[in-house]
Specification:
Layout (H helix, E strand, L loop, with lengths): L2 H20 L4 H10 L4 H22 L1 H4 L3 H24 L2 H20 L1 H12 L8 H16 L4 H12 L4 H26 L4 H20 L6 H19 L1
Helix pairs in contact: 1-2, 1-3, 1-11, 2-3, 2-12, 3-10, 3-11, 5-8, 5-10, 6-12, 7-9, 8-9, 8-10, 9-10
Length: about 250
């Protein structure tokens, strides 16, 4: 790995940590960067998952005020997220690498669509939240579990999907719901990362650089990320996601 590549991966980690805290699609930044530097898709994915875990922790710490009073709710939802994350990670390790390469472009397209229609999703969440309850029912838990499976397998835009699920199901302030999203997505990455660390081929150099960058990005996202212009942020993510699709196809 050259110095320029190391700087690029570290910078991608900062961007992903920030984006994951604010929106939830940082993988669409880091995954294409690793692909561009010649890492195999599955290796890039598992290294990326491990590398972004510290950033999720930093983001959750940054949202600790919004998480106060939500521990019981978080614990219930975390069971679903962790179960889904384990299933997704096992699927990634048991299915052939060719399946991942074939499936992921479709996942990225779905993630980009979610990003492009994020404003409409947010508006829908705002309207529905007025009629929602304060507790996560079986349907919500099932949806969070499925989202965890997706996150353990790949995870791009997992945060956006979680935000939509939780926003439609829970009557609460959007920032408190976003704090739940950050914590749950981080737990999925954590459990998948632990499995990958013991059972998959990880490129630890890039994973370490992403980890360092994502910690800084997670802190920036929790502290200043809400001030980022949403339109410009979405444009960058969509452009990078298209590059990833072209690279995989």
């Amino acid at each position: 790995m050259s110095a320029a590549q190391a700087v690029a991966i570290f910078s991608a980690g900062i961007a992903a940590g920030t984006i994951n805290t604010v929106v939830g699609s940082g993988t669409l930044i880091t995954f294409p960067v690793l692909l561009a530097f010649g890492y195999a898709p599955v290796v890039a994915n598992v290294s990326n998952t491990i590398g972004l875990v510290p950033g999720s922790v930093a983001g959750a710490v940054g949202y600790r005020r919004e998480l106060r009073g939500q521990l019981r709710r978080l614990a219930r939802l975390a069971c679903a997220s962790l179960t889904g994350g384990v299933i997704g990670a096992v699927l990634l390790l048991t299915l052939p690498a060719s399946a991942f390469k074939a499936i992921v472009p479709g996942f990225i397209v779905n993630a980009l669509v979610a990003i492009l229609f994020q404003n409409r999703l947010t508006a829908l969440v705002g309207e529905r939240r007025r009629a929602a309850g304060s507790h996560a029912g079986p349907v919500t838990l099932g949806a969070v579990l499925v989202c965890g499976v997706y996150g353990g397998y790949f995870g791009a835009a997992q945060g956006i999907m979680l935000l939509a699920i939780l926003g439609l199901a829970l009557a609460d302030d959007l920032q408190r719901i976003n704090a739940l999203k950050v914590a749950l997505a981080g737990l999925v990455n954590l459990v998948a990362g632990v499995i990958f660390a013991f059972a998959a081929h990880v490129s630890w150099g890039p994973a370490g650089l992403l980890a360092a960058g994502s910690v800084l990005g997670g802190w920036l996202g929790a502290r200043w990320g809400r001030r980022l212009p949403p339109a410009g942020l979405r444009a960058v993510i969509v452009a990078v996601g298209i590059v990833a699709i072209v690279r995989l196809v």
